Amino acid sequence: MAQVNFYLKDADAKEASLIYLYFSFDNKRIKVSSGESIKPAHWNSNAQRVKSSVAGSNEVNHALEKLAAEVMKVYRQMKLADEQVTPNAIRNKIDIIKTGKPTKHDFFGFCDSFIASVSHMRTKGTIGIYRNTLANLRAFQEATGAKIDFNTIDLNFYNDFTEYLTRTKLYSINTVAKNIKTIKTFLNEATERGLNTKIDYKSKKFKVVTEDTESIYLSEKEIEKLYKLDLSKNSRLEKVRDLFVVGTWTGLRFSDFSQIRKENIKDGFINIRTQKTDEQISVPIHPMVKSIMKKYDGKYDNSLPPAIANQNMNYYLKEIGQLAGFDDKFVHTRTLGKKRVQETFKKYELLVTHTARRSFATNLYLAGFPAISIMKITGHRTEKAFLRYIKVRPMENAMKLKEFWDKKQ
Predict the structure, then answer these.
(1) Enclosing H/E stretch for 286
(2) Which residues of 58-82 are buried (b: 16+ CB within 10 A; e: fewer)?
(3) Helices 220-228 and 235-248: angle between axes, nearest 10 degrees
(4) Residue 212: inside a domain, yes or no?
(5) Residues 17-75: pLDDT tens digits?
(6) Residue 320: closest CA among 217, 220, 237, 244
(7) Interatomic CA distance for residues 95 and 72, integer angstroms
(8) What sections of 172-298 are H helices per DSSP?
(9) Is the pLDDT of residue 194 over 90?
(10) What 3-state class would DSSP assign to 83?
């Protein structure tokens, strides 16, 4: 069933915000600007119209209703004419309605509009990666004089751009990989919409190259040590520690374990739909998490400490890790530019929110819990990717094998 909705670009803005038209049809959806703007305080979100008490509301509401009617009319006509109804075809029809002529979509224009259209569906981290890649592409174009458009993104572009990121920006292999992966995301979307016909980016040579890097995890003993660390005189660090420990026993990403609501907690389980992959996950509440929830019961609606910004939490976790005595040394090896660089860190210096999720997966694996069951929680698609994700050292694998043999004997 086809449906038209109107939403504000920024419902929390203090000034006038653009009104976007969302058109859902045939399990697809597009988002386009209506050309109208209104202050959020003057917007009725339930009716999806300007409040009738606002001066000039009739004119704006009439324009929205006219646009909605025209879009539905176009959709019905295309269906009756047995035309292929694609997001790009509908978008072009709407452009004609609004301007009298189709809008030309160049690569950068498309990427900007694509990022805006998915900003409410993707995590802040993903949107940040999209924007960084676009900024790098613009910087590359300015630095080299190369013209970037759909028809110029070929293997020569791939070689030149990766060389620019490696030699000029001195990016690591994995950061270069993120940029290439994002370009492929842009081009896949543009191809599906019929805006791009050049498919060099699907070549095996247009590849995403990564390298394994050293990432830490906390053992169950270390998690318990962290949990028992007396932080009663520092409420800020105590809340960060407690929320991090929740992450180590749920396997959820920061974007999920920092957003657990009261309604997600039922009958001894946390049931939540993940932000990044939109999957339904159920995790039993670990005794340590129950204890934390008991501490905050009545203080917060979900009986869990409130979240702070990821960046700030990462900063405080290093301070907490230092207090806990996580001083083991780790050699971090990666490729920067064309050079292999080795850096030595203490364990607490590498402690971040994502360490919680990796600790959950690694500890379960070492305990003998089936990898396929862990993957159902972490969302890894293949065992190869999962085994690359967990950080099991050779000696830990050897001890795991020894325990297996001892049990058999």
Answers:
(1) none
(2) eebbeebeebbebbeebbeebeeee
(3) 150
(4) no
(5) 889 889 898 888 888 878 788 888 899 989 999 998 888 888 889 989 988 898 888 88
(6) 237
(7) 14
(8) 173-192, 220-228, 235-248, 254-257, 287-296
(9) no
(10) coil
Per-residue model confidence as pLDDT tens digits over 220-254: 999 999 999 999 999 999 999 999 999 999 999 88
Is there a domain that residue 207 lies in? no
CATH number at residue 197: 1.10.150
Strands 329-336 and 269-273: unpaired
| Cα gap 343→287, rounded to integer Å | 37
Q: Is 405 left (phi over 0), alpha (psi -120 to 50) or beta?
A: alpha
In a domain, residue 121? The reply is yes
- The answer to whether residue 211 sits within a structural domain is no
- 145 and 194 share one domain: yes
Could you read off the pLDDT of 309-359 as tens digits, one per residue? 888 999 999 999 999 999 998 877 777 767 777 788 899 998 999 999 999
**What tokens were used for 139?**
């910087």
- Tell whether 255 and 389 lie within a shared domain: yes
Residue whose pair of structure tokens reads 């002529």 in the numeric block: 101
CA distance 283 to 116: 33
Number of H helices, E strands in the chain: 15, 10
Residue of higher predicted confidence among 308 and 276: 308
Collect all residues with Cβ–Cβ distance below 8 Å to 230 and sequence separation of at least 6.
Answer: none
State the residue range of the domain holding 81.
3-99
SS3 375: helix
Last residue of a domain, one of 202, 228, 244: 202
DSSP string, 124-184: HHHHHHHHHHHHHHHHHHHHH----SGGG-SHHHHHHHHHIIIIIS--BHHHHHHHHHHHH
Q: Which H or E element spans position 73?
A: helix 57-80
Cβ contact 260:304 at 8 Å: yes
